[in-house]
């Protein structure tokens, strides 16, 4: 291929180098290199699961966090969304917006971090795209699958259901937003066991995400502030409003609570933090302001 | 829902307004609003098709092009990739990177243009994401399907196959890069009729994309420059190197050429521009420099 290689654009060679270390994936018929990727569809009785998400320099990370942390956060955020659906992530499509001043080595290290995660979770690389931009950003689109009907949606919470979170809340600003672990195994287990009536991940903070879940379910809620699993050094207000916990927020019918707490097979902390109320009642937040994180107001 | 609506973040309300006009889609079980979208998988005997692509302010468009042209280009670029695979696009996931100075009305008009295209092609909106950024950009990820084994890949060209392009080439800078029509019907037809041995869309110009196709197929090529279908007012060099034609480039085995030209059911122009050669021969470009478009060198 020596002759044709000479006239292949440098951009293609650069992308090829970035994605070289990506693990092979058996579902992928044709990956990067053609205009689209071709895949074998989800197996019988499974639904297709889709997500797209972006991280942007100076919004979701600082360049000083370093390439490994940036690449990791970009992929982990999407995996956290799959966790929230109790779904298995399978393929990634990665777009990078890349400033001219940034060295190709920096991007290479972002991809290396992403491919390490891919290896851990068996993720294929189904596509990629590169463009110039003024700031560094990654957009990750992902496909996966879930057994039909098993995903806990945001809309499934009913009055009386108990509200749970995994892990601890607060402290994103202190660096946790880069180092969190997506709760994939926990989310899959909750869906398989049919324990969660509603579920989502805490990307914008309990103070913003719990109202979203409540709105989708047309219910209200009461939080026992004293029970919140605070990250060491955080106040209840920080735990509620810092955002970027990437823990699971889910509700469980009262009759299943004992089974959940008895069977929970993970070291990950599990905390009941309140109850779902009928819509006609005011939300009770123990006097803590629920504001969460808004990309356009902060 | 009055009570919970009050505590729903303004960002959610803004996104809801942007996507309100999007047509319903029967394959979509859960769309925007949950952590991921859930879909019925591709039907029996069909493969899943995936693509991600971005357009960035001052790289792919100027703000002065206006929101309708920007939204249209963002989606049409992706549809052009589906055309190149002879595949049916089905779902879009749209991320917008939005500068604070840009009015929500501007973004609303981008989405309106995208939803008009969605209505025309029966596309669902499976997800969306919004983030702040320094410049406006859209990342569009799309899923679709194709009959198993029917997509012409870039790697299928063989010596002796005739090289074709649809439409005319050149003139992107004069505005065509915003107003092109993705060749979806033509691509689908070529795949269904099993006429194209290799196919791709011309996003970076014949001068860059034909070498890509040749490299993937491990062949060389000869272009008859005099036969290139030039956009009015363009030179051969512009037709080859301007980029952003979004026409189909494909190869056809010699024995199928008569059938192709006889049965071609479209008004879209169809032009044989050269032949595939064995790899050992030098590429012949009639003395015109093949350089195409490189995001990192222009």
List the helices and strands and how they pair.
The structure is a homodimer of 298-residue chains.
Chain A: H1 2-6, H2 10-19, E1 28-30, E2 37-39, E3 46-56, H3 67-84, E4 88-98, H4 104-121, E5 124-132, E6 137-147, E7 162-166, H5 176-179, H6 184-192, E8 198-201, H7 206-217, E9 220-223, H8 236-241, E10 248-252, H9 257-263, E11 270-277
Parallel strand pairs in A: 4-5
Antiparallel strand pairs in A: 1-2, 3-6, 4-6, 7-10, 7-11, 8-10, 9-11
Description:
Two copies of one chain form a homodimer. In chain A, 30% of the residues lie in helices and 25% in strands. By secondary structure, the first copy, chain A, is an alpha+beta fold. Chain A is built from nine helices and eleven strands. In chain A, helix 2 packs parallel to helix 4 and helix 3 packs parallel to helix 6. Chain A has helices at 2-6, 10-19, 67-84, 104-121, 176-179, 184-192, 206-217, 236-241, 257-263, and strands spanning 28-30, 37-39, 46-56, 88-98, 124-132, 137-147, 162-166, 198-201, 220-223, 248-252, 270-277. Chain A has two domains: 10-147, PurM-like, N-terminal domain (60s Ribosomal Protein L30, Chain: A), CATH 3.30.1330.10; 154-277, PurM-like C-terminal domain (Phosphoribosyl-aminoimidazole Synthetase, Chain A, domain 2, Alpha-Beta Complex). At the A-B interface, helix 1, helix 2, strand 2, strand 3 and helix 3 of A face helix 1, helix 2, strand 2, strand 3 and helix 3 of B.
């Amino acid at each position: 291929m020596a002759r044709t290689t000479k006239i292949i654009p440098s951009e293609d060679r650069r992308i090829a180098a970035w994605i070289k270390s990506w693990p092979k994936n058996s579902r992928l018929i044709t990956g990067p290199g053609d205009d689209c990727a071709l895949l074998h569809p989800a197996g019988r009785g499974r639904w297709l699961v889709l997500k797209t998400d972006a991280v942007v320099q100076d919004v979701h990370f600082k360049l000083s966090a370093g390439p490994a942390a940036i690449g990791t956060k970009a992929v982990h955020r999407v995996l956290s969304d799959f966790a929230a659906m109790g779904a298995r992530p399978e393929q990634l499509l990665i777009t990078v917006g890349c400033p001219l001043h940034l060295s190709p080595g920096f991007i290479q290290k972002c991809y290396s971090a992403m491919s390490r995660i891919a290896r851990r979770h068996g993720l294929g690389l189904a596509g990629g795209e590169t463009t110039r931009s003024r700031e560094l950003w990654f957009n990750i689109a992902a496909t996966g699958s879930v057994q039909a009907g098993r995903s806990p949606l945001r809309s499934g919470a009913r009055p009386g259901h108990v509200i749970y979170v995994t892990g601890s809340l607060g402290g994103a600003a202190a660096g946790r937003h880069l180092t969190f672990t997506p709760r994939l195994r926990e989310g899959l287990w909750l869906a398989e066991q049919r324990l969660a009536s509603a579920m989502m991940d805490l990307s914008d903070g309990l103070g913003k995400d719990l109202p979203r879940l409540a709105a989708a379910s047309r219910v209200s809620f009461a939080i026992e502030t004293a029970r919140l699993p605070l990250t060491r050094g955080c106040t209840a207000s920080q735990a509620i409003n810092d955002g970027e916990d990437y823990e699971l927020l889910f509700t469980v019918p009262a009759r299943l609570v004992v089974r959940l707490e008895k069977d929970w097979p993970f070291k990950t902390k599990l905390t009941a933090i309140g109850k779902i109320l009928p819509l006609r009642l005011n939300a009770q937040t123990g006097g803590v302001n629920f504001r969460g994180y808004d990309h356009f107001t902060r």
